[in-house]
Amino acid sequence: MDVLKYPPKPNFKEHCFEHLMFLKSYAEKHFNDEESYLRSINYPDFDSHKKLHTKLAVDVLRFEKELMASDFSPLDLKKFMGFVVTWLTYHVAGEDRKFSKADEPIVPVKTEQSKVIGVDEFIKHFAMATIQVLKTVTGLMYQDISIDIRGDKFVNPEICFRACMNSKFNKCIGIKYSGEIAAGVFKSITGTDACEINEIIISSLSELSSIISSRFAGVVSSYGIPCDVESPLQVPADDIPASIDRFIAETRIGSLEIILFDNYKNKG
Known about the structure:
Blueprint: H1 12-40, H2 46-69, H3 74-95, H4 113-116, H5 121-138, E1 145-149, E2 157-167, E3 171-178, H6 179-190, H7 199-222, E4 227-229, E5 233-234, E6 246-251, E7 254-262
Antiparallel strand pairs: 1-6, 2-3, 2-4, 2-5, 3-7, 6-7
Helix pairs in contact: 1-2, 2-3, 3-7, 5-7, 6-7
């Protein structure tokens, strides 16, 4: 985060550009080496993992263009930093460890007995995938996270995102973050307390939403329905309609709510 301190150091923009080029070079070499290794061991989830690499390359190129166009403005730098720290935390701490770690234990999902019947299996799997993402990004333990499917609790959201499916599974995902979990995620990743919800936190949560949405697309694909997901958009809470297909992840650093609803723009 030193690059964001003011007043800026001499040759500030040159240092920013050097860091950006280093990230691109490092990522390209790391991904090429990793993909070669995964092919050599016939890694079963190779295609999904490669998609993560491709997405990062596309996102970094987009940020590079935005940073150059804005002459490395503080706003665009904060957005870039939020994206980078979240993506790398998840990828390095989570995805790469799957190559050498045994499967994680199953965490029980809490539901009211009267509401267990009729709950689609993919929602349960999505809830489990969300736990895995939160655990990886924040360092929370399994006992720190509980899931309530179709319960009576709701999150008072500070920040919301919407991501829609490009699939026969014609749904959108709404993700609502409480202010507590927004600050908690930021502190978990950076070790820094958040004084306010700023561009770094919003960008970090945008990337976290992208990771969660991509995991959901993987769940849908595992049911034999090819599925990709659009990049999340920050939206007002009112833009996410009510739905019975929802769950809340409650943690010791706050809560988030995930809602599945019809993708009306693709109907007809």
